[in-house]
Structures are given as structure tokens and as C-alpha cells.
Amino acid sequence: MKVIRSLSEILCQESAVKLLRLALEKGILSHSYIFCGPEGVGKETTARALIYHLFCHFSKDEPCGSCLACKKLDKAIHPDVKILEPEKRDIRIESVREIENFLRYRPLEAPYRVILILQAEKLNPQAGNALLKSLEEPPLYALFILITERIDQLLPTIVSRSQVVRFRPLRREIIKNYLVGIRQYDEGLAETLSSLSMGSLGKALAIAESGLLEDLNSLIQASASKKRALKFKVAEKLARRPKEELELLLNLLGLWIWKSYVSKRVNLPHFFEGLTDCAFEGNPHQAVGFLGKARQALNYFVNPELLLYNIINYLETSSPNLPANSQIK
Ligand SMILES: [Zn+2]
Predict the structure, then answer these.
(1) How far is it, in rounded angstroms, from Cα 127 to Cα 199?
(2) What is the pLDDT of residues 195-249, one digit of tens each?
(3) Ligand 1 mean position to 23 CA, how many Å?
(4) Is the confidence at residue 21, as pLDDT, over 80?
(5) Distance from Cα 61 to the centre of ligand 1, integer Å
(6) Cβ atoms of 137 and 166 closer than 8 Å
(7) 243 alpha carbon – ligand 1 mean position (Å)
């Protein structure tokens, strides 16, 4: 996988990149940034690129990729970068204490000591308060970059001490072109993935790489089948996926339902290439409402196998015309 080191390689986030380039050029970086926006649109990639720009020994405009600093960043062994991310459910105060230690010393090799906090909304209240202290009187060489999809879940006092940089969903063509041009996916599949991605390249890649499209196919196929054993088997297999992937699977199912509904009214080009030909015939509002409840249930530790089995049955009864022998591409 190609390493992205330069801000000029960031897709489709012109205003964020412009703002950062200007700060680099003028040498007036904020001591704390919050990069916020949907998942998979380049927030972390941009943060990492910014560090290359700051640390590269040869060029602040275009990181060279070959100096010692760039190489250490490539290998994630640069001593002046610290990355914090949730362990299991949250980021705890112990991790924030490590930042305090880290900031006690001047940078060893770079002009800054950078603290990159991933999923910053997962800072628990004690950790958030401790971080606030570090943000109140940071040493001049400290640079915080907080990455989050949910800025509303950060302490307002953290937000007010930081410069907020907003990232937006990517345009569909951008995602499609990337999938075709860089990842060499075939055109039809790239079209499907980009329309399922809701503007998130990360999501498009996750769907492609995790085999979720195949699983969505088998779920739809199972609901069209009269065989109970097949329904159980599919529910059991899919239930082994981690919760985040199951949520994504339910989202995809919801999109399939809406697209089934819309495609009856307008002619959608490349409608779900790589997906089953059959369409959902029932009431899409009710079905999507049902899926919303199913998603909530996942968070309450409902047995996922049972939940998937119920979904399969729901699809069968609410869309009785799903052809039993529907062709799975
Ligand atoms: Zn370099």
C-alpha cells in the first residue's frame, strides 16, 4: 500500500488542505487541531501528511520520502510522534498521563512533538479533563491533532482551545475514479461500491475488502429461500462478524432496500453490479425502520445470530415476491 506523505495527495478536501498549507507556509500553526468529519474521508491521512510536512529534513512543501525523518515516519518509529487511540471502548486517563510525560521533554529530532489522538470522541470524562490541562498551557513545541467523527461528543472546552478543520464526504466520482485508477477494480463494481460508500473512501474499501457484498448477497438469497436450514446457516455465518461490520451490513441492506424502491421509478445505471438481481418489493419505510431497531438491538448485546435470523424472516414476509431462485451474480 502506497504511503501518502504529501498534502497534495489528499483527495477532495481542498479547504482543509488549503488552510493547513497556509499555516505551514506562514509558520503559524495552531497548537491544537480538531479534524472532524465522516469516517473514511481522509482525516487521519491528512494528519499524518501534515507531520511529514513538518518533520521532513529537506522540504516543507513536498516531503521527500527519503530523509531520516520521512523514513522514521514511514516505519512509525519517530520519537517525536505519539499516537493515542481507544483501547477497547475508550481512551483512559492513563494514556493521557503518558502525553504529559511525553511533553515534558523537548523534541528529540523534529521541530515539534506531535500528539495524534484517533477517535478523540472516545476520551472518557477523566481523560478529557486531563487532556484539557495539557491544552491549557502547552509547551511551544507541542502540536495536538484530534481526529473525530463526533465533535459534539468532545468537551466544549477542548473544542474552544483548538482550531477545527472540517472534512466533508467525498464525491462519488472521486471514490469511483480512485477504485478504478489506483485499486484497479472493474468499473461496475467500483460504481456499486462508490454508491454504497456514502461519501467515505474508507467505507468503500472496507466493503470491498471485507467481503460484505457477498454476505449481503447471501442474506438476500436466504430470505428468498424456503429452506429454514439455509436461513439458519447464513445467520450463523454472518453473526461471526464483528459488531462494526454487522452494522455496516445492516446499512448496506438498508441501501439495497431504498435502491430497490427508487430503481422501480427511475432507471439507475449499473444498479448494484455484483449484487443479486432481485429487488425488495415491500414498504421501504417500514423495512428501514425495522433495520434501525435491529441496529440499536446490536448495541444492547442481543444475540446477533438470532437478530440476523429475524431479519432474514422479516425480509421474506415483507417482500413475499423475492424470487426463490433469484440469480446471484
Ligand atoms: Zn523527508
Answers:
(1) 31
(2) 888 888 888 888 888 888 889 989 998 988 888 999 999 999 999 998 888 988 9
(3) 19
(4) yes
(5) 10
(6) no
(7) 39
